[in-house]
């Protein structure tokens, strides 16, 4: 497999319901991850985009969290409906989605 131009990390951290930090799993990260994989397959971008499920990326209160490299852009509050825009505007178009970027004090 060639080195991908973009690498997308999706927090799939699951903590107990009473954990003080919460987790992205409690906020719907599974749907986001599955939609990223579906879009990747639909668009046949296997040689240029890689999607990886991860543990905690840090800003638990802003989840579900998605991190795109090489730019190091962190998105928060991502929903399934946002995934096509992430592909269109950022992964293919090169422009991060400002409306989903987490605040600078979190990332």
- Do you know the CATH topology? Glutaredoxin
Rounded to an integer, what's the Rg over CA atoms? Answer: 13 Å
Question: What is the count of DSSP helices, taking H or I runs of 4+ residues?
Answer: 2
Taken as a percent bin, the fraction of beta residues is: 15-25%
Number of domains: 1
What is the H level of CATH, i.e. the homologous superfamily?
A: Glutaredoxin
Mean pLDDT: 90
Fraction of residues in helix: 10-25%
The SSE order reads: EHEEEH
The largest beta-sheet arranges its strands as 2-1-3-4
What is the distance, rounded to the nearest whole angstrom, between the alpha carbons of the first and last residues? Answer: 30 Å
Query: Which term fits the overall shape?
Result: globular
Ranges where pLDDT stays below 50 over 5 or more residues in a row are: none
Assembly state of the chains shown: single chain
Per CATH, the architecture is: 3-Layer(aba) Sandwich
The largest sheet, given as strand count, sense and whether it forms a barrel, is: 4 strands, mixed
Total number of strands: 4
The CATH class label is Alpha Beta
Q: Could you say which structural class the secondary elements and strand pairing correspond to?
A: alpha+beta
């Amino acid at each position: 497999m060639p080195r991908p131009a973009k690498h997308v990390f999706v927090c799939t951290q699951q903590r107990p319901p009473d954990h003080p930090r919460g987790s992205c799993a409690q906020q719907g990260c599974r749907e986001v991850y599955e939609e990223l994989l579906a879009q990747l397959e639909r668009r046949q971008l296997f040689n240029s985009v890689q999607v990886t499920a991860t543990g905690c990326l840090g800003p638990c209160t802003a989840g579900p969290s998605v991190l795109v490299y090489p730019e190091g852009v962190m998105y928060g509050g991502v929903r399934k409906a946002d995934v096509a825009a992430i592909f269109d505007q950022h992964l293919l178009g090169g422009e991060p989605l400002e409306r989903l970027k987490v605040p600078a004090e979190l990332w």
